[in-house]
Amino acid sequence: MAGSKVPVIDLGPWRSDDPEARARTAARVDTALREAGFLLVTGHGVDPTLPARIREAARAFFRLPAGVKEPYAVTVGGRGWLGPGAEANSYAEGKASPPDLKESWSFAADDPTGDAAVDAEWFRPNAWPAEVPPLKELVTEYLGLMRALSDELLELLASALGLDEDHFTRHTSHPTWGFNLNWYPGTEVVGPPLPGQFRIGPHTDFGTVTILDRQPGSGGLQIHTDTGGWEDAPYDPAALTVNIGDLMARWTGDRWRAGRHRVLPPPADAPAEELISLVYFYECDAHTRVESLPAPVGRVVHDAVDSHTYLREKLRAISVLEGSTTSE
After folding, report:
1. What is the DSSP letter of 73?
2. With left for phi above 0 and alpha for psi between -120 and 50, is residue 194 left, alpha or beta?
3. 271-302 confidence digits (pLDDT tens)
4. DSSP code of 101?
């Protein structure tokens, strides 16, 4: 978009041995996250054919009859199919709205820690649709890339704040994460949007960093800034979209903005538009104590929070069941 405050950050200079190039990259990241909470990241090394193959497999599942998908149904926080009406993301901001116009297949951290209570809540096994055998291998490869990239981004963020590079990654030795394949079908599937209804309602993400591989569309991603209000998010086919979430904003004492965003409903001029997004939500080790960095880095001192108590409350807020909210 014209005059966008969302820069394209090439990770090549950050990965170099040039201290000045690394410092310039970190400074650009700091500026961007103060203004919008979003980055476009290139030079990430993800083969572009991998997301394309994941989309092909995911589309095959989502287009199956509802009766075939129903045995995989879960609620928010589960591993499996989130069917129509399962989420209303605007509730994370305390604002009522109709349910989001999407379906998802949700994955999450599944490597047990050995702590039975933590594992029962945050590290359960993932489910895989038997009808789409290729999905498991493709997603497993992608998840490994996203975990490594997320830690690299956290090191870049720490450097942007003038901190030791491991300031955040020392809290990601056994982190939780979530991964959604979001399907945004046209109105022939979801019907005409209700007033105030979106493919995903306005919200900020809940964790540390989110990495999004998206498709452009008329009913696509919009971001919100104080200066520009709601605007179409910039798109670069070679880039991944990165935004920070609530926990990182709290950690930095609101120096950086949690990237507020929404996904528009199917457009009236292209009602059959279909999009699929790959969304990786990175968090931190279970029950990390998140305390605001003091001035001059931070601007606001928030009360310290237990990371996963915070995450659970947010997941509960966006869950929809018979018109009310539920935990799972």
Report:
1. B
2. beta
3. 999 999 999 999 999 999 999 999 999 999 99
4. S
